[in-house]
Amino acid sequence: MGNKVDLLLGLQWGDEGKGKIVDVFTKKYDIVSRFQGGPNAGHTLIFDSKKYVLHTIPSGIFHKNSTNVIGNGVVIDPVIFNKEIVKLEKSGVNLEKTLLISRKAHIILPTHRLLDAASEISKGKLKIGSTLKGIGPTYMDKTGRNGFRIGDIELTNWKDKYKELCDKHISMLEYFNVDIQYDMQELDEEFYSAIESIRKFKFIDSEQYFSLALASDKRILAEGAQGSLLDVDFGTYPFVTSSNTTAAGACTGLGIAPNKIGNVYGIFKAYTTRVGSGPFPTELFDEDGKTLAKVGKEFGATTGRPRRCGWLDLVALKYAIQINGVTELIMMKADVLSGFKTIKIATHYNYKGETIDYFPYNVEEENVSPIYKDFKGWDEDLTGVSEGKDLPKNLLDYISYIEKEVGVKVSIVSVGPDRKQTIIL
Ligand code: GDP
Ligand code: IMO
Ligand code: MG
């Protein structure tokens, strides 16, 4: 720590429990920063019997001594951001002094949301299952060099720039030829009012800010959103999000050099979930799958959609560990596995008739079927356990097997949603 930026990233398809662990870690850090994604994320924190779900705001905000930064790689919807702020203020959390926003972060316009919806409708059965927050269209404008950034709202003619881009989007909507109802005047007003609210926060040149912070030995944690298998390059394309969710994304999303990356905390559920469409080799459609969903309360924190559930996929996990250079693993939701007689881990895939141990280009059901190893389950309720030595032997065996196969230690096991239900091994 110090002079390096530590990363915390999801190794699966998102919702691994990143928010909870960032909150647990924040006391060790001066600065917590989001580097990609936007309000498609839903990070849940529970402490003192209260639950908070954060979408754009970093999960370090509940610790008074830390500064939180929204980095240049993030896409911000001012309307959603504002709602989040108002909700937090109502619970007594004031962020005006402790939350900084990069001028280079791109802004989600209301018409980006409309385009997202139109694209999904037009895809029919092949839809991505996006969160409909306008993420894809906003990143398209970013890479297409048409984007609208936080820095733009400091210009006097920002409304002209906004309007010009909206008009373009409206003409693009015609291409999709789908029925989308909207009232542009209402959307404009909501947007203008949110822009005025966001101005009370300090806008920064985040790359400069991080450079100075590193030089003065500040301890920095970068909080990933989504998961490695949703990465636009390495995920299950096209069923991915539109940003780099993996470690490299933290360099471009904050403006820090690769040699400034310190620890990489890789976080995974003791099983697997996915929300939205796309391949999922270990997905279960039987009673076991239903039990995981029910006991794990697997519903999306942003959209409320049920999450698809399945066993742990070690092939995919190894792939994610490799791409991110994970130095420590954090296993979440171990408590959800209590009560299963047998627990399975996919150790290999049968890929077009051949046994493989790597994540191939095609992971669709017709190409890949998982090969499982069985593990003995346990009955003990883990939610009250606070020390590693009190965990059931069968769980410790399960963990040891994973560590041995992937070559990285599991340093934390989470046994419930509360901040306190966290076991340091
Ligand atoms: P994130 O997007 O990675 O921050 O994760 P989400 O908040 O979307 O989803 C994780 C869900 O699991 C939330 O409802 C958490 O409250 C919950 N959770 C986190 N850790 C644990 C755990 O160890 N056990 C159980 N049962 N729930 C957990
Ligand atoms: P957190 O940070 C789980 C999924 C969507 C969809 C795909 C593309 O809470 O882990 P998008 O709206 O990004 O264009 O949707 O990605 N997705 C997530 N799944 N957790 C998330 O974030 C997600 N953010 C996007 O369901 O399949
Ligand atoms: Mg989530």
Task: Summarize the structure in words.
- By secondary structure, the chain is α/β, with parallel strands linked by helices.
- Helix content is 31%, strand content 21%.
- The chain is built from eleven helices and 20 strands.
- It has helices spanning 18-25, 78-90, 110-123, 135-143, 158-176, 184-198, 206-215, 247-254, 287-295, 314-324, 393-406; strands at residues 5-10, 31-34, 43-47, 50-54, 67-70, 75-76, 99-102, 106-107, 202-204, 220-223, 261-269, 272-274, 308-310, 312-313, 328-332, 342-351, 354-356, 368-376, 410-414, 422-424.
- The strands form five sheets. It has a ten-stranded mixed β-sheet with strand order 9-7-5-2-10-1-11-15-19-20, with helices on both faces. Strands 14, 16, 17 and 18 form a four-stranded mixed β-sheet that branches.
- β16 (342-351) and β17 (354-356) form a beta hairpin.
- The longest helix is centred in the middle third of the chain and has 19 residues, at 158-176.
- The protein is globular and about 65 Å long.
- The two termini are 20 Å apart.
- The protein binds guanosine-5'-diphosphate, 6-O-phosphoryl inosine monophosphate and magnesium ion.
Question: Concise description?
Answer:
The chain is built from 11 helices and 20 strands. The chain has 425 residues and is an alpha/beta fold.
